[in-house]
Amino acid sequence: MAGHLIRRLNQISTHVFLRRTQEAGFDLTPVQFAALAAIRAQPGLDQAGIAAKIAFDRATIGGVVERLLKKGYVKRTISRHDRRAREIRLTSEGRSVYDQILPIAASLQAEILAGLDPDERREFLRLARKAMQSTATADGKIG
């Protein structure tokens, strides 16, 4: 079934990401990496904004941000525009870690889809995007 295959491919993808980043000396999950990417692309996002950008559960994004804070990769400050809001930005260490992991993440994409030739990879990605967009549109809630 499609759901089972998608879940298994996600498990494989997560395993490959963790193995390759740990081999390079980093302790970062794929979700933490995605959060760093979102913050890098749009400094000053709040937790809800990060969750929306990476299609992650708003209720659990706080734990992801807390772990990034403890690692020293991000800092949280009070917004100048809304004293109730907390903006999240990368620290210099966070930028450095992101910049070092980005090429690793890019290179492992071929490893995740190793059983496919380049044309099949492009077709797989096209179909996965189409399935994801149609599901998100039908559901109306999923990022």
From TrEMBL:
InterPro entries: HTH_MarR-typ, MarR/SlyA-like, Tscrpt_reg_MarR-type_CS, WH-like_DNA-bd_sf, WH_DNA-bd_sf. The keyword DNA-binding applies. Pfam families: MarR_2 (PF12802). This is MarR family winged helix-turn-helix transcriptional regulator. Residues 2-133 form the HTH marR-type domain. The keyword Lyase does not apply. It comes from Sedimentitalea todarodis. Keywords: DNA-binding, Transcription, Transcription regulation. Gene3D superfamilies: Winged helix-like DNA-binding domain superfamily/Winged helix DNA-binding domain.
